Amino acid sequence: MSINAIRARTLATVAHPPLSGFTAVTRQKAEQLSAEWKGTNAVGQNTKNFIGGEFVESKTTNWIDVVDPASQTLLTRVPETTGAEFEQAVAAASQAFKSWSRTSVLTRQRFVLELQQQLRQHGEAIANSIVLEQGKTYPDAQGDLLRGLQVVESAAGIPSALLGNAIEVSKDMDTTTRRLPLGVCASIAPFNFPAMIPLWTIPLAIATGNTLIIKPSERDPGAAMIIAELCQRAGLPDGVLNVVHGGVPTVNAICDHPSIKAVSFVGGDRAGRHIYERGRKAGKRVQCNMGAKNHAVMMPDANKNHSLNALVGAAFGAAGQRCMAISVAVLIGEAQSWVPELIERAQKLIVNQGFEKGADLGPVTSPAAKERIDGLIASAQEQGGKILLDGRGLEVAGYPNGNWVGPTVIEATTEMRCYKEEIFGPVLILVKADSLDDAIGIINSNPYGNGTAIFTQSGATARKFENEVEVGQIGINVPIPVPLPMFSWSGNKGSFLGDVPFYGRSGVDFYTQNKTTTTLWRSEDAIGKKASVVMPTHL
Ligand code: NAD
């Protein structure tokens, strides 16, 4: 049975009465969102497709419920966009490409600047939507948007980024290279950063002259719908950005459609491998950011206070649902004696609904995710691991139905399932190592290569780590070293498939192709001479 069929069957057996589990605050925010935005809804009505500049109700018979992870209250229903609607989105994007790709780069830059302003002005609505659908805390939802906004802001430099090359290769002969858009592109997003990930692709794909079809996560499409409306308000012509919805059928339609030239994907390994293979087979440019297991090495000479705070924040913030969350701490020597203090700090974190004051982390995304995380914690116990702090069975006052998992700390070995699998929850695995070399060995043996960090006061230790560790994004006394958009994403090994990464210089490369022209306007032709018939060598 397909994942979608299982999900549909599960949802069919669960009743989600709209608004019944809301507090007064949540209800007010849900009602305000629903009243103010055309594409999204948080009071039980349907999320729309955005095709050719119109927010349109889908004609599908296949709807996916989106529920508040803190209360299981029905927020909205997302369509599995029909084949005909998907074709309309591709047709709108193809038609819009004809004119958008010929629009001046300054017009495209102005759109980016306008979008930046719109996003800043309406950031509260986006953050509210993220808290409701995704469950993270309000300040963390603001961070989700801000990290996306930074990509928008860096895309404002698009005229310089698109500068080509030119040289007089021979007398009176010039070769120029221009960076041109690809055509219709598509972007498939995960649930954990509903604003940031769409904003990794929207500004650069569009500023480089492409048109784009976005498929947000079917679990939290609201932020993408608000962003689409803000793109429209920022003056984006109809059809340049389109939003379709759904699960595997819509993703497969994206991979297969001959008019789509490039696919960006961020999400889990299974989907990523499938999309990479299917998209590449159909001749598309594909970039896939996937799962992770990020290790932090705690050296005994580290600043204990800073390291412990950094570790606790990076392991449990966003309920561990960040691809750059620290999920493993490798403790070396004396650092192994810091565990009681680590646990003390983890215990102090407040788990609560995202709008509640003082909440440090919210619920995990779904009952299925909670069950999977609880199962991985149990597996550690079965395989001989020591559960030092157990977040299972947590109850949160006022939210009896939330998908709660509290901060969990497990002492384990690298053979155990809880170490090997990505948990994607508030669970920190502790492993011990005798030396820095052993720690580097552990990290390099792990199939993932998204992020890693070392905490030390020694420049030499940090330098050795940086030189020898094979992971693509390294933090030295920095727990979540996500590169700002003047750089590019550089996760590697099992965390990435493709050749050209997201945003920054690479983002511009991903969304453009070079066209090279060689031109001869010979000055002597004005007076006429015999034609040369030998092979041109440009010498
Ligand atoms: P997911 O793979 O379940 O879903 C991601 C997208 O793929 C969604 O839009 C979904 O509809 C689609 N999808 C899901 N299963 C599919 C399938 N079998 N075939 C085709 N499409 C499918 O991921 P998620 O649970 O939404 O997100 C969490 C995962 O994303 C974690 O593994 C996390 O590490 C990863 N992630 C990675 C990065 C990164 O930059 N490396 C960033 C964020 C999240």
UniProtKB/TrEMBL annotation:
Domain spans labelled Aldehyde dehydrogenase: 55-516
- The record's EC number reads 1.2.1.27
Q: Name one GO molecular function term.
A: methylmalonate-semialdehyde dehydrogenase (acylating, NAD) activity
Reply yes or no: does the keyword Oxidoreductase apply.
Answer: yes
Q: Does the keyword Nucleus apply?
A: no
Instruction: Output the Gene Ontology cellular-component terms.
Output: mitochondrion
**Classification via InterPro entries:** Ald_DH/histidinol_DH, Ald_DH_C, Ald_DH_CS_CYS, Ald_DH_N, Aldehyde_DH_dom, MeMal-semiAld_DH
Q: Which keywords fit this entry according to its UniProt record?
A: NAD, Oxidoreductase
GO terms classed as biological process: L-valine catabolic process; thymine catabolic process
Q: Which family does it belong to?
A: Belongs to the aldehyde dehydrogenase family.
Name the chain's protein: methylmalonate-semialdehyde dehydrogenase (CoA acylating)
| Lineage of source species | Eukaryota, Fungi, Dikarya, Basidiomycota, Agaricomycotina
